[in-house]
Structures are given as C-alpha cells and as structure tokens.
Amino acid sequence: MSGLHQTSGRWKPGLALSLITVATWGILPVFLRLLLEVMDVPTITWYRFMMAGAFTAFLLARKRRFPRLRGMSRGILGLFVLAAAGLCGNYVLFLLGLDRMTPGAAQVVIQLGPLFLLFGGLWVFGEAFSRRQALGVAVFVLGLALFFNQRLDELFRGGSEYGIGALCIVAAAGAWSCYALAQKQLLGTYSSNQILFVLYLTAVAVYSPGAHPAAVLTLDGFHLFLLAFTGVNVIVAYGCFTEAMAHWEASRVSAVLALVPLVTLVFMEICSRFFPTISGAEDLNALGWIGAAMVVAGSMQCALGRGAVVNPEAEAEELANLE
C-alpha cells in the first residue's frame, strides 16, 4: 500500500451511505425467506455468487487488475482455502438457519459474527481489548437472552427446528469470522475485489454439483425479482459500504451497521400488517424488544470501543461481507 487511507471527513455522505447499507442488509433476509419457498438453498447460493462474481469480474476487467495466482505460496493458498470455506459456509448456513427461524431472529443472532471476529483478532493478531468492548459484549449477551425470553425452551430443546436454525446461524457467524480473519491477511498481497473474485469463482464451482440453475425457468415474475434482488443487494450494499468508509471512520460506520437487526424486525412488522399471509414476523413482548435494542447497543459499544484504527482501508475490507 502506498500509504494509510485518509477519510474525507464528510460525515453526512458517510452517514447516508451507511444507512443505505443498513437498509439493504436489513431487508435482505425477508427477500431470502420468500425465495426459499420456491428455490433450494444451494441454487440460491449459486446464483448469488454467480451474480456477484460477474460484477466483480467486470470491475477488475475495467482496470485490468485480475489477480495473478501463479507461484502462490502454500501460506497464501491456505488462506484462500480458509477464506473460501468461511464465505461459502456463511452464505449457505445463514440460509439453512433462515429456513428454520424468522428473519428478525436470524439477523439478531448473526450479529455474533463481529464478536467472533473481535475475539479472533485478540487470539490471532494480539489486538487490544478495551473495557468499553467488554461492556459491549456483556450487554450483547444479556440482550440475546432477553430477545429470546419467550422461546428459550424451544431454543434449547433437542431436535427443535428453531434450535437447529439458531445453531446454523451461529455457525454462519463463526464461518464469516474465519473468512474475515483470512481476508485480513490476504489484503497484504491482493486487493479486496481480487480476493472476492477468486472466492466467488471457487464458491460457484463448489455449489455447482448441488445447484439446479434451470429452476430459474420455473419462477414467476415476482420470484425472479427476488432472486435478482439478492444478487444486486450484495453489489449495492458493498458499494455503499466501501464509499461510506471513504468519508467516515471505520468504527462509526460499523456502529451504524449494528442497526441492521432492528431494520429487519421493523420491516417484518410492516410487511405482516399489509400482507397478513407473509410468514416470519416476530411476536415480541416488551422484554424481546428491549433485548433487540441491547444487542444493537452492545454491537455499537464493541465497534466504537476499538479505538484508533491502524488501517481504515483494511478495516473496511474485512467487515464488508457479512450478508
């Protein structure tokens, strides 16, 4: 890198772009849940990676910056394998969990991803852990317990679909943190788009045997729109996120992104009122809503408690792909 990336200091566009990212990631699980009614998990995942990969290839072709992979060391190859496994696992495990629990609950649980990344940074890179972050973790965990206060028995009852779904989402969060840690190391050699291009191609190859691309021919106009949206969502959210990081500090952008679960919960409430047949709305009591707010507050504390970011540009890349 030629030097440390400096933000423009224009907080208004930074905030606006962060909120667009929050909106696109917040409504994504609702669209995915509707798509799961007519299409299987491997096929949805295959199409999402294919669309994202095609767009990334277009960006790299414009700048003639396709990654050079010949002569790759075993260490770099191992990091690519870990990153690919993490990213592939994150996408499919999130969908498997979403198929068994509500979009709002899935978005709350997936917030474990940044926490796992935080602890992974402590273990792998020896990063500092502040008291503010410790408080954030405590608030987050208590918030989770309150959010699920009405379904704790179902959550921990062996063999329940809801409990299995929650485990899938926890595993998806863990897989994402492995991907993010591996990508953080790879950023010393390749750009984010170069890394993602390789990972997307790998994921398409991995999911091709189990995918049924011809299933798209059976979709009606509404479900075709949903499928296209899930691919475009990745592109728009990532683009807005990256641009937000150009104007605002990484910790502040990350704190705003913690609002994603609340957007999903509110969006589901609105959808259920206008479309009573839609499934997946939460039936939260007061403690559940307090818990959701605490999960968001805890995530914000962890993000804002990071202190100065040594390399904001690298920080942006490692947080970019939770959905």
Please specify the SSE layout and strand pairing.
Layout: H1 11-35, H2 41-63, H3 74-98, H4 103-110, H5 112-125, H6 131-147, H7 152-156, H8 161-186, H9 192-207, H10 221-247, H11 250-257, H12 260-274, H13 286-304, H14 312-318
The quaternary state of the protein chains shown equals: single chain
Number of strands: 0
Strand fraction equals under 5%
Instruction: Count every helix, treating DSSP H or I runs of 4 or more residues as helices.
Output: 14
Helical content band: over 70%
Order of helices and strands: HHHHHHHHHHHHHH
**Uncertain stretches:** 1-5, 308-323
Q: Termini distance? A: 27 Å
What's the pLDDT, averaged over the residues? 82
**Per the principal axes of the C-alpha atoms, what is the gross shape?**
globular
Structural class: mainly alpha
CA-based gyration radius: 19 Å
Q: How would a textbook summarize the main sheet?
A: none
Give an account of the 3D structure.
This protein has helices at residues 11-35, 41-63, 74-98, 103-110, 112-125, 131-147, 152-156, 161-186, 192-207, 221-247, 250-257, 260-274, 286-304, 312-318. It has 323 residues and is mainly α. Helix 1 (11-35) packs across helix 4 and helix 2 (41-63) packs across helix 10 (221-247). Mean pLDDT is 82; it is low at 1-5 and 308-323.
